[in-house]
Amino acid sequence: MFIFYLLFPWKTDDDPAELWRQIAALKPRPTAIFSYSDELAVGLLRAIRVAGLSVPDDVAIVTQSNTRLTRIAEVPLTVVDGDSRGVAAAAVESLLEQVQHPLAPRRRVLRKPVLLARESSGERRSL
Q1: Which residues contact 41 (CB under 8 A, 6 or more apart)?
Q2: Rounded distance, CA 121 to CA 53, Å?
Q3: What is the Cα–Cα distance from 63 to 81, expressed in whole angstroms?
Q4: Residue in 52, 64, 62 with CA at minimum distance from that of residue 24
Q5: Is there a contact between 31 and 60 (Cβ–Cβ < 8 Å)?
Q6: Residue 52: φ, ψ to 5°
Q7: 3-23: pLDDT as tens digits
Q8: CA angle 122, 123, 127 (to 5 degrees)
Q9: Which residue, 65, 52, 2, 12, is CA-closest to 32?
Q10: Does residue 42 sit in helix, strand or coil?
Q11: Cα(97)–Cα(104) distance, rounded to whole angstroms?
Q12: Closest CA to 55 of 32, 34, 72, 37
């Protein structure tokens, strides 16, 4: 199996359909996209389907934010959930500890991401 990664810059006011055209022009065309933004992932999902392709059969999509958008998209999006709320809570707790006990040793907090497999990556759910 041959795996390679390409990075495409994208800003929130850019058109996801144009980004899809750039991706689709690659030879061979990528079979999966990892998006840093749920909004971009939904835009790419639409652009891929407008182009007459299927998600996930032709192109799989995975994103990372796990907003409500990922669950209500036309094809629910697979997510690598980094638990941003848990990370924020741990950061606030750590800052409060440092303020209250400035000489205490700092501690490392590790959060494990969770894969939420949904239809956009080929996961089929029965209803």
Answers
A1: 33, 35, 61, 62, 63, 70, 73, 77, 120
A2: 14
A3: 8
A4: 52
A5: yes
A6: 90, 15
A7: 666 777 777 778 899 999 999
A8: 125
A9: 2
A10: helix
A11: 8
A12: 32
Q: Which amino acid is at 87?
A: V
The DSSP element (H or E) to which 62 belongs, if any, is strand 60-63
Average pLDDT score over residue span 93-121: 89
Q: Kindly state the tokens that stand for 6.
A: 């390409």
Query: How far, in Å, CA of 121 to CA of 17, rounded?
Result: 20
User: Residue 106 is encoded by which pair of tokens?
Assistant: 């700092």
pLDDT tens digit sequence for 18-63: 999 999 999 989 999 999 889 999 999 999 999 999 999 999 999 9
Rounded-to-10 torsion of CA 42, 45, 47, 51: -170
Q: What is the pTM of this model?
A: 0.78
Query: Hey, what domains does the chain have and what are their CATH numbers?
Result: 16-82+113-121 (3.40.50.2300)
* Separation between Cα atoms, residue 41 and residue 74, nearest integer Å: 11
Tokens describing residue 97: 């500890």
